[in-house]
Design brief:
Layout lengths: L6 E6 L1 E4 L2 E4 H11 L3 E9 L14 E8 L56 E2 L19 H11 L5 E4 L6 H8 L3 E4 L4 H15 L35
Parallel strand pairs: 4-6, 7-8
Antiparallel strand pairs: 1-5, 2-3, 4-5
Length: about 240
């Protein structure tokens, strides 16, 4: 049962049936609302690669619905602040006239974060999916990156709080909780995945779990990289 200071973060994408797309966050919102929960943010997780489409635009995002039970919820802003856009801006009137108008710890990010290096200036949660050479990759078909959940853990819980994941998979949420000194519980229907989760948590407790660094810069090829050059076969095509 969720306590008064707790939060529920429900992450979903879009469901496709036949030739129609169903935005699952819209359907789940109604269910949570009918059960007395309040939506605080609808967070967009953007990623650069996905299944290419032929008859519609390719999907490149999922959503995280953040619900609370009461107004006594935990929210730690400082661990997830981003740098001020204009740190030299000063108040022009009032008792603080002439003093810096921003917070020296940084500003409150929006519900669209781009986590590249540690500056997050574009404010979109752009975190790569767990695929191919990603250090966290296992055989789970829909594995979420620990980095995504770390930000939720840091902002919405305190040390020694309990993080519960009813669809734990290979344990990304429990690893995020463990790394940041939270307690955690997770369940899943497939023992193959929970066995992996158990091993990963042991590694996290030992400080040996290999994960993508929090806020690590995404790969940006050099201007001379051959991957940026238009193939000879495409030279007669125009892109507008």
């Amino acid at each position: 049962m969720l306590n008064d200071s707790g939060s529920i973060c429900w992450q979903v994408g879009n469901y496709i049936e036949g030739k129609e797309l169903f935005p699952l966050d819209i359907y789940f919102y109604r269910i949570f609302k009918e059960n007395g929960l309040k939506l605080k943010n609808r967070i967009i997780w953007h990623y650069g690669h996905g299944i290419p489409e032929q008859r519609r635009f390719s999907g490149r995002y999922e959503t995280v619905l953040w619900f609370v039970k009461s107004e006594d919820y935990t929210f730690n802003l400082d661990p997830v602040r981003i740098p001020q856009k204009y740190p030299g801006k000063r108040s022009y009137k009032g008792p603080n006239k002439g003093k810096p108008s921003g917070n020296p710890k940084g500003k409150n990010p929006s519900d669209l974060w781009e986590i590249i290096k540690n500056d997050w200036d574009k404010e979109i949660w752009e975190i790569p999916q767990v695929k191919a050479a990603h250090p966290e990759k296992t055989n789970h078909p829909a594995q979420y990156p620990v980095e995504l959940i770390e930000r939720l853990v840091l902002a919405l819980t305190n040390e020694d709080d309990l993080v519960f994941d009813p669809y734990v998979g290979v344990g990304s949420s429990l690893i995020a909780a463990t790394i940041h000194n939270r307690k955690s519980i997770g369940v899943d229907w497939k023992k193959e995945y929970t066995d992996i989760a158990y091993r990963n948590i042991i590694l996290a407790l030992q400080g040996k779990y290999k994960k993508r660094e929090l806020g690590k810069e995404l790969y940006n090829p050099d201007r001379d990289d051959k991957l940026l050059k238009i193939p000879e076969e495409w030279k007669n095509h125009s892109f507008s």
